[in-house]
Design goal:
Mean pLDDT: 81
CATH topology of the largest domain: Rossmann fold
Oligomer: single chain
CATH class of the largest domain: Alpha Beta
Largest sheet: 7 strands, mixed
Shape: flat
Low-confidence stretches: 27-38, 202-213, 233-247
Helix content: 25-40%
Structural class: alpha/beta
Number of helices: 14
Radius of gyration: 26 Å
Number of domains: 3
């Protein structure tokens, strides 16, 4: 599992800027939690050899009521679920009483805390960090998130003490199909898990040190080995006090990372909510094959069923490749069909595609619909080969491929998916442009040829 880094600190110390630097994005992914006006932000990043998950949070140290209290609740939730913490302070504001209060609570967590002194550009680094030694945390590190100074040193300081990414449990090896069960609270995930496993199982329990881990549940069905990766909260029921405590986006992200297929559970009686769409977006970003299980389908009127199907098309067009099944986890109807979907999606996601087949499909696609002209020159797509699995990655070489419109890329994805009969899995198209074969030839002209070229150029003017 990827290590989780939480960014915390007072408002306006530069947490969001640092988040964008660490994830190499301009815009954070926002987890949409009902009733909260400020939410955690999640993203994946890599600086150096080790990938990680980053959680941005709202500012701490404000009022204890209203929006500030909700933001603080989210921030401390992120701290609880993290492996390491980056405590961000502002060099230009200096050490404040709020910084002292935050550091005291962070120290009590027992988790590794890295102290980053931001906005040190134009300042003497040693003088900028001097006051912050009084917090009694790790030696403060001078950074500038805006100018990306000191970021690599900070990341190394955060990740070096952490153990390497955990290997999958022995029971979740590559001999079986791993699928992640995700969904909002109360959509019937636990009921579906029990139905799949064929036994009643309490999915929320107390196990010290595993509050962020997913649960790997191996089982066999019709001579096929499966591993269900459940994302239910691993904590005492008595501690589950609110919506944020009942569901963790981090668990869902980690479960999808470890899975071959994602099984997204929706509640037919509530329709497709905004958070369902958010989870579907996470699944699409993870690149895993996707099966949508619309639960509580039994007893719905024809009008209600038609409305749900319309909502699926309207709100989730970006995962049109996903397979959808309508089920009742309580009564078991349609659950058997889920296994057929899981197997088809797994085979599609892990499919080895012959290079000759890819080139034949690419040639036919280009003949039927030519790439557009760019500045009078046509984009040429020469050949293709497979670059990875889960999801299938198709690498296409040519010239000016960086100018290929997104619409034409989607056209190629659809052609490959239809021709190869890939179901339930996204397809990643990677485009690579070769060097211009004529580049630099002018330097190899003879002196006489060079004089002639210059003379013709003057006359043309």
């Amino acid at each position: 599992m990827l290590p989780v880094i939480a960014l915390v600190g007072r408002p306006n110390v530069g947490k969001s800027t640092l988040f964008n630097v660490l994830t190499r994005t301009r815009e954070a992914i926002v987890g949409d939690f009902p009733g909260l006006t400020r939410d955690r932000k999640f993203g994946e990043g890599r600086l150096g050899q080790r990938p990680y998950l980053v959680v941005d949070t709202g500012g701490l140290g404000g009022d204890d009521e209203g929006v500030a209290a909700l933001m603080a609740q989210q921030a401390w939730q992120a701290v609880e679920e993290s492996d390491a913490i980056v405590f961000l302070v502002d060099a230009r504001d200096g050490l404040t009483p709020a910084d002292h209060d935050i550091s005291e609570r962070l120290r009590r967590t027992g988790k590794p805390v890295s102290l980053a002194v931001n906005k040190t550009d134009g300042l003497d680094p040693e003088l900028a960090v001097a006051d912050f030694f009084n917090l009694g945390l790790a030696p403060p590190l001078a950074i500038s998130a805006v100018h990306r100074k000191g970021i690599r040193t900070l990341v190394d300081a955060v990740l070096d003490p952490l153990p390497p990414a955990e290997a999958l449990p022995p029971e979740a090896d590559d001999t079986g199909i791993r699928f992640a069960l995700i969904g909002r609270p109360n959509v019937g995930k636990s009921t579906l898990a029990n139905r799949i496993l064929g036994e009643e199982r309490v999915l929320a329990f107390d196990q010290p040190g595993t509050t962020r881990d997913s649960i790997f549940l191996p089982f066999r069905r019709d001579d096929q080995q499966y591993t269900l990766i459940d994302t239910a909260g691993v904590r005492r029921r008595s501690r589950v006090t609110g919506f944020v405590e009942k569901f963790s986006v981090i668990k869902a992200l980690q479960a999808m990372e470890a899975a071959h297929v994602t099984l997204l559970v929706l509640d037919a009686r509530e329709g497709v909510t905004d958070q369902d769409a958010t989870l579907a977006g996470y699944a699409a970003d993870a690149g895993r094959a996707l099966v949508i299980a619309v639960n509580k389908w039994d007893g719905l009127s024809e009008h209600a069923r038609a409305h749900v199907k319309h909502e699926l098309e309207r709100k989730l067009p970006f995962i049109a490749y996903a397979e959808t099944r309508f089920i009742s986890a309580l009564h078991g109807s349609g659950v058997g069909e889920l296994f057929e979907c899981l197997e088809r999606c797994y085979r599609s996601a892990m499919h080895d595609i012959a290079t000759s087949d890819l080139n034949r499909i690419l040639e036919q696609a280009v003949q039927e619909h030519q790439p557009p002209l760019v500045r009078g020159r046509r984009i040429k797509l020469r050949y293709a080969h497979q670059g990875g699995r889960n999801p299938p990655v198709i690498v296409i070489h040519g010239n000016q491929t960086e100018r290929l419109p997104a619409a034409y890329r989607r056209y190629l994805e659809n052609v490959f998916r239809k021709t190869l009969r890939l179901t339930g899995t996204p397809i990643r198209i990677e485009l690579k442009s070769g060097d211009n074969p004529y580049k630099g030839k002018r330097n190899r002209l003879t002196p006489r040829q060079e004089r002639k070229r210059k003379r013709l150029k003057r006359h043309s003017k």
